[in-house]
Amino acid sequence: MRPDILNPLFAEIEALKGVGPALAKPLERLGLARVVDVAFHLPVSFIDRHMVDELILSDSGRVIGITLTPTDYRASGSARAPFRVIAQDKHGNTVALVYFGRNSAWPRKLLPLNEPKFISGKLEAYGDNLQIVHPDYVLPPEEAATIPAREPIYGLSEGLTNNRLRDLVAQSLSRAPDLPEWIEPSLLARKDWPTWREALARIHADPSDAKARERLAYDEIFAGQLALMLVRQSSRKRRGVPIEGDGRLRAMLKLPFAPTGAQRRAMGEIDGDMAQPVPMLRLLQGDVGSGKTLVALMALLNTVEAGAQGALLAPTEILARQHHETLRKMASGLPVTIAILTGREKGRVRESTLMGLADGSIDILVGTHAIFQEAVRYKNLALAVIDEQHRFGVAQRMMLAAKAERTPHLLVMTATPIPRTLTLTYYGEMDVSRLDEMPPGRQPIQTVVMAVNRLDEVVEALARHVEGGGQAYWVCPLVEESETSDQAAAEARAELLKTRFGDLVGLVHGRMKGPEKDAAMEAFASARTKILVATTVIEVGVDVPNSNLIIIEGADRFGLAQLHQLRGRVGRGQNHSVCILLRGGALSETSRARLALMRETNDGFRIAEEDLRLRGAGEILGTRQSGEAQLKIATPEHLSALLDSARDDAHILIDRDGGLNEARGQAARTCLYLFERDAAVGLLRSG
Ligand code: ADP
Ligand code: MG
Predict the structure, then answer these.
(1) What is the atom index within ligand 1 of the atom nearest the CA of 387?
(2) 374 CA distance to ligand 2 centroid (A)?
(3) Which residues are within 8 A (CB) of 185 and not within 5 positions of it... i.e. 6 or more apart?
(4) Which bound ligand lies closest to the C-alpha atom of 574?
(5) Which atom of ligand 1 is nearest to the CA of 288?
(6) Which of 137, 169, 229, 479 could form a disulfide with 485 if both were Cys (CB 3.0 to 4.6 A apart)?
(7) Which helix (H) or strand (E) holds 518?
(8) Which residues form the Helicase C-terminal domain (predicted)?
(9) How many whole angstroms from 2 Cα to the centroid of ligand 2?
(10) CB-based burial of residue 75 (10 Å sphere; 0-12 exposed, 13-18 middle, 19+ buried)?
(11) Taking ligand 2, which is a single-atom ion, which protein residues have CB atoms under 5 Å away?
């Protein structure tokens, strides 16, 4: 239950004066549905209003506030020319107040001749004359004091003015209660931070107040860390299944290569965790191509050797099928039953798989999230591996833990080289293994950037590549918010390429039916097709080592981490690989710099750091779509400066008062609710 003290903040936004249906729409577009959302809608910048009593040329370019007297109107002949009100300061200097638009009645009414008004707006030099285009404020002089010298500027949407939002913020602040302090007193003193309420008020009064912002950023990071630690605490209180395989299946594997040192280290860490009676919570990080699949297979075989079941969860159907294939190939000749379950397995096939899981005749299940649905019962699930997790959030991880009577060990694998701060922010409850070494013999991928108007040359290069026996991916541009048009773009591109390459062209996109998708993937994997036109469905994990050319259209529209993932589809075999990034004609400086970085480096960590700086955490982790709680206040800079203290603070608090029952614990609960990490509070009771 939410602490009562927060009720005024969590009231619907309609509780604020002046918010009716007309305003609710634009507010909703900004994600402002409750009073608390408005309070946390922090200003993005501010204007400093220069209060003066004389018009001076050298003030042009600044926003001024001044009392002026209108002396004349200048209507213009033509309909498109503006209407001008000439106004004078007390020294006789003049300025033209400029109003565009057909109707002069309004400025005439607003600015009657010879009546002094307080006027604010941006002063501009227009030839030798001064002008203010559409003043922000025109008020009776006695109301001048109501206009702040420093005015916060908010993110707005159509139908919502800055003034209106300022008023709503003021109302929400007056509803904000003083909250009990959750920050450790010595830290609070050392940082010289204001209280929560004061910090909020200070930022809205002065958006440049770094200290106040820092305090709120800290609160947000602290809430996240505390939530993850509660998840960890509750998970570690659960009983797990100690798993210690005897190595008999793993010894039977016939691998064409030896595991890298990094793979061996990760396997050792995983085996060590799984032998414990508390459930493993481990994140396996490794750049694309670092060989995570083998590590997963070893952990799964360890489980089967111990007489239990394992499951491998993939984010897409294509990837699930590919994993199923790969695991079966690698484990061929072993007495292990590996089955697949996705939304597509229906009817009798599905029934028999469900039965096999329930009676234990299936050892390893590969699939999409269908494998953790209600109807799926395992005999003794002891290990869950989640591949390419970036579409599975904390909430899903918690749900998974609830699936079995005894909590399965959890291994989450990610190819997104997440910067350390983000790992701790989103996976702080997990231990981490890193594959920081690539399998030997990999050649660096050569990346070139080309303008899309050189498409002909690209097609020529593709033709030479295919004639030389190579295969290639052709990834189609991401069309904003529309799967259908992604698909249309891919279909059109495939048609075009077919006129040149005929049946050698395959096509796969997210809207295709399962069997069609399989057929397309299979044809490409077995080299019956040479060119695979695809949407981003091939982004994660697809592995066809013979394909060593990838062409990515509309590259400037992808995130860097995503481009890196896509590029990782090549460079998997022994051959030299090339990635061609096709860009649009007019590029911003930033886009140019981003593509240059892709050309310059294959280092996933550098790319991710840059992406974090440019696009924020949600993009990297792919959590925007999944609705995972995101950082709204804390910037990457805040994270690097504050994460460690927030972590320590949360640690100390949990060590002292794991149930969050004492005064500071209760205050910390308030903080969790405030930042909507309250799912973690639920764990306190159930755990
Ligand atoms: P990812 O980490 O991206 O999931 P994969 O597991 O798909 O990487 O492995 C990429 C490729 O590297 C696969 O073709 C796999 O067979 C190969 N591979 C994995 N481990 C090794 C190794 N130790 N030596 C050589 N090749 C390896
Ligand atoms: Mg993989």
Answers:
(1) 4
(2) 27
(3) none
(4) 1
(5) 3
(6) 479
(7) helix 514-525
(8) 454-613
(9) 41
(10) exposed
(11) 541
Q: Which ligand is nearest to the CA of 572?
A: 1
Query: Ligand 2 centre from 286 Cα, in Å?
Result: 9
User: What are the tens digits of pLDDT across the range 487-528?
Assistant: 677 888 999 999 999 999 999 887 788 788 888 888 998 999
- Name the residue with the closest Cα to ligand 1, atom 9: 291
CATH 3.40.50.300 applies to domain 446-601:
yes
Which fold is adopted by the domain 248-435? Rossmann fold (3.40.50)
Domain ranges of the chain: 1-48+161-175, 50-147, 248-435, 446-601
The residue count for the chain:
687
Residue 632 CA to residue 188 CA, distance in Å, equals 22
Please identify, by atom number, the ligand 1 atom nearest to the C-alpha of residue 295: 6
Q: Name the class of domain 50-147.
A: mainly beta
Top mutation candidate among 255, 572, 574 for ligand 1, by most atoms within 8 Å of CB = 572
Compute the distance from residue 230 Cα to the ligand 2 centre, in Å. Answer: 30
Q: Distance from the CA of 293 to the center of ligand 1, in angstroms?
A: 7
Q: Give the CA radius of gyration of the chain.
A: 31
Q: Which residues contact 440 (CB under 8 A, 6 or more apart)?
A: 260
Beta carbons of 204 and 213 less than 8 angstroms apart:
no
What is 1-48+161-175's CATH topology?
Answer: DNA polymerase; domain 1 (1.10.150)
Are the folds of 1-48+161-175 and 248-435 the same?
A: no
> Which residues does a 6 A CB cutoff place in the pocket of ligand 1?
257, 259-260, 263, 286, 288-294, 415, 439, 541, 543, 545, 572
Tens of pLDDT along 375-405?
788 999 999 998 866 555 665 666 665 555 6
β-bridge mates for residue 119, sequence order: 66, 138
**Residue 131, pLDDT above cutoff 50:** yes
Q: Rounded to an integer, what distance in angstroms lies between the CA atom of residue 422 and that of residue 58? A: 47
Task: Phi first, then psi: give them for residue 465, nearest 5 degrees.
Answer: -60, -45
628 pLDDT more than 50: no
In one-letter notation, the amino acid at residue 575 is N
DSSP 408: P
Ligand 1 geometric centre to CA of 291 (Å) = 3
How are beta strands 117-126 and 63-74 bridged, if at all?
A: antiparallel
Indicate the Cα dihedral angle 389, 391, 397, 398, nearest 10°: 170
Do residues 9 and 36 make contact, with C-beta atoms less than 8 angstroms apart? yes
- In the reported structure, the alpha carbon of residue 45 is separated from the centroid of ligand 2 by a whole-number distance in angstroms of 43
Cα distances (Å, whole numbers) of residue 83 to 119, 134, 137, 298, 419: 17, 10, 17, 78, 56
pLDDT tens string 344-354: 888 999 999 99
In angstroms, rounded to a whole number, what is the distance separating the alpha carbons of residues 90 and 79?
32
- Return the ligand 1 atom nearest residue 441 CA: 25
Distances in whole angstroms, Cα of residue 32 to Cα of each of 38, 160, 190:
6, 12, 34
Three-class DSSP category at 485:
helix
Label the pairing between strands 117-126 and 137-139. Answer: antiparallel
**Which is the closest atom of ligand 1 to the Cα of 388?**
4
| Ligand at shortest distance from the CA of 259 | 1
- How does 591-602 read in b/e, with b if 16+ C-beta sit within 10 Å? beebbebbeeeb
Q: How far is the CA of 91 from the centre of ligand 1 (A)?
A: 80
